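Friendly challenge for the regulars: who can give me the structure tokens for this chain first? No prize, just bragging rights.
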Amino acid sequence: MTLSQVLAPQLQQSLALLQAPVLELQAMVAQELQQNPVLEELAVPELTQREKDDGQVDKEQVAADPTEPPQDVTYDPAQEKPSNQPVDDFQAEFEKLARMDQEWRDHFAQTNIPMRQREDEEERRQFMFDSLVSSTSLQETLIEQMRLSELSEQEQQIAQLIIGNIDDRGYLQSGLEELSALTSIPHDQILRVLNVVQTFHPAGVGARDLRECLMLQLERQGKQESLEYRIVRDCMEALGKRRIPEIARKLDASIDDVQDAFGRIAHLDPRPGRAFMPDDNQYIVPEVFVTQSGDEFTVSTSNDHVPHLRISNVYKDLMAQADSSPEVREYIREKIRAGKFLIKSLHQRQQTIMNIAKEIVHRQRDFMEKGVAHLKPLTMVQVAEVVGVHETTVSRAVSGKYMQTPQGLFEMKYFFTSGIQTMTGPDVSNTSVKDMLDDLIRKEDTAKPLSDEEIVKLLGGKGIKIARRTVAKYRAELNILPSHLRRVY
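First reply, four minutes later:
Bragging rights claimed.
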């Protein structure tokens, strides 16, 4: 026997909705709409607000707006039924659903107007997707160039073998000896075809290592006699370690010329196939917006991207019919319960995110006004105590959510940072310390770059107590090289 915690299905659904970013939330709600026939989505959210203002809908429909809390029923996540009414009291449960006067029916008949607008929007959206041009892969581009080349039919078969062994970066993954052993094709013949493939676009494709890749690009530019070509050909190891004086002595060149050559080499592409890699960009939709008006900050959530749901009146009418069988009524009853809980969970999600965002803005006011250097240490426990939820709820609520602030777009997790002790005042956020470190290195003398120990002393002069290994850690996280590799002669 084992002891384990079991979450009710409805509670699991509520937590999943809370943790999901807005784009995932839309997909989850779309799945619920397919599984629950009593739910329908409002095409125009503004229509719901106008209906509430005009008093043309009952509280059942008002609860469908996630910005307004449901007024007619409360749910206990640990139970399968509403906590304020018995399951068997069918008449009390659906009494309100049966009250539909002619005014509501006239309004319901007008819902085709926004639906037509939604169909038009869907047509424009589909047209946009149909107009997108699919990108061509690196292998397809090379195959097309191979067909236009002067290679014989047999050589084209070898070229296809070579192209099939080129990875997305543009490098040949299999050695010529391996290809020769697998195909029984002479090594010299494979090498001859490889030399042709290496003339294809992009420059550097088909290289077997970084050195050959850079040399192919320089050869394409006609720089076989240049200093940078000699550096890549003869001093590749020293190039990677930026041993400028050593390279200058070996190639009998001045340090200034070597540094200039380093700058030109830096413009070469170490991954020539990168332009053909699939686009894996992730699109971000901010869920919280912070705007400044005078000395005050206003926090709002984006409800335009949150689905607005309601219970379909078709099933309400079906429940009101006397000839409906008990099985049909019980099925619809359970679906309406599930729909109500989903609507309530959407409202709770928005309200929780709003409360957490307000507390973040309250505690990080200096950041909102002055920027990253004034970010304060903040833990999820501190926010959870004020909002009145568990810290795990805060973690779920900020996961994958973004906040648009006067200082730019930030993930909500960005505002939760540990602190570093200071000698004279309150703790400083480690993010602020990283910003200070980056600023020190940007302003350093490149001929005498700051060592980690010197950075420790400079930060100590600002009252920040930090260890050298911590500086090295933050520098690595910022992708900043050590001092001996940053030096410019």
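Residues 420-486 form a domain with the Arc Repressor Mutant, subunit A fold (CATH 1.10.10.60). Residues 326-363 form the longest helix (38 residues). Your move, everyone else.
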